[in-house]
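1st attempt posting a full record on here, be nice pls
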Amino acid sequence: LDTTRWPASRVLHIRKSDRPGQLRGVPWLSPVMMTLGEISDYIEAQILKQRMAALVAGVISAAADGNNPNTKALEDLSPGALVTVPEGSEISWTSPPKVDGYAEFIKQAVAMIAVGIGITYESLSGDLSQVNFSSAQMGHMVMDRNVEIWQIMLVNQFCEGVERWLIDAWKLMPTNPKKSFTLDWTAPRRPLINPRNDIPAMVDEIDAGLSSRQRKQRQLGLDPATIRRERVEDMKADRDAGLTPIVPKSESTPKPTVELAQPIGAPKPDVTGVEK
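the predicted structure (as tokens):
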């Protein structure tokens, strides 16, 4: 039970920093910890209530003359059975409590938990009965922002620490090449809701200069260097087989020329002798 201190260089402290100067992280479930405990108590109470609802019992009233009837036949009551009740006896059935509103309450509780930890209700519960394409896409977009933050957090705090340790261990190898290296990290692919529209939008961003090809490839969970090498291999294999190499549409389609509008009243430029 002795306490041992470790230097910070040997510890990878993974945390989400919500404010400048924050040294410690906050547990992921801390916003919904109380809610989870209350929901657990509610579920236990509902289970007990359900057990009580299943306890349907019969109460036998004795005959008016005070004689105790023989109720052994009722002790062996089974579904579909016919029993004989002594003359003068009355049977009344208990009314166990009903279990109402359980599904609606649990659904709202799960939705509160999902919002508290930054994911969608459908991802947490697996229930897709109340969503359509538009609502599912909007929820996916909101969740993707949180997932991107978590991925960046893991890369900066965990993966780069592993890279540092790996480089230090590599230097200790007696037969290692004296060549420095770095590691690149590609996050797992996030599934596209509508690839027919999402992929052309990515291509337009690349053509417009709003993003790079390798950035979009990494967002899809792919390695740009691997794709580039495989494209060269595919083109070489097509040439060796006598096939026409497949050229992407963005590279084969000529881009239209854009003419700049001239201010009103401005003289037209003299293009005499200028080559097109």
